């Protein structure tokens, strides 16, 4: 997990606290929305993932997340709202997402990550 956080900090310019928060929000989202077998592979490949996901699992999406939810735009739209509510810009969200999925492909494999991206509508545009 330290490698993932370090790479995200380098790619996005976030400090360690915000990088961990962003990763936790994304992991909690993936755990909720993704296919359980592949999410299990990802979490097994990233020691500490379960703890970060649990820490952010109850996070609220702020105003943008609320608006997305009211418009029926849960899923990736709500995830973006949560990340923006945590203080990330759109550019930082893209940097975090791309780096996180690159690490996921390295650690859990292309098949697992491809199945996760394929199972969550709209996720492919961020990774």
Describe the structure.
The chain has helices spanning 2-12, 16-33, 36-45, 49-56, 62-70, 75-85, 90-108, 110-119. The protein is mainly α. The chain has a domain at 2-59 and 97-125. α2 packs across α4 (49-56) and α5 (62-70) packs antiparallel against α6 (75-85). It is globular. Residues 59-72 have low confidence and may be disordered.
Could you give a short description of this structure?
The protein is mostly helical. It has 8 helices and no strands. Helices cover 76% and strands 0% of the residues.
Protein topology:
Blueprint: H1 2-12, H2 16-33, H3 36-45, H4 49-56, H5 62-70, H6 75-85, H7 90-108, H8 110-119
Helix pairs in contact: 1-2, 1-7, 2-4, 2-6, 2-7, 3-8, 5-6, 7-8
Put simply, the count of helices is 8
Structural class by helix and strand composition: mainly alpha
Measured by DSSP, the beta-strand proportion falls in: under 5%
- Helix-residue proportion: over 70%
Write the H/E string, N to C.
Answer: HHHHHHHH
Task: Throw out a few tags for this protein.
mainly alpha; 8 helices; 76% helix
């Amino acid at each position: 997990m330290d490698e993932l956080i370090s790479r995200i900090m380098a790619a996005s310019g976030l400090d360690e606290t915000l990088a961990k928060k962003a990763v936790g929000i994304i992991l909690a989202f993936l755990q909720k929305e993704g296919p359980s077998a592949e999410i299990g592979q990802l979490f097994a490949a990233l020691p500490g993932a379960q703890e970060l996901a649990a820490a952010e699992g109850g996070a609220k999406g702020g105003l943008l997340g609320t608006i997305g939810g009211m418009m029926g735009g849960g899923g990736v739209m709500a995830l973006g709202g949560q990340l923006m509510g945590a203080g990330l810009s759109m550019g930082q969200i893209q940097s975090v997402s791309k780096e996180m999925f690159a690490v996921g492909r390295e650690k859990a494999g292309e098949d697992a990550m491809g199945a996760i991206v394929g199972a969550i509508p709209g996720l492919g545009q961020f990774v």
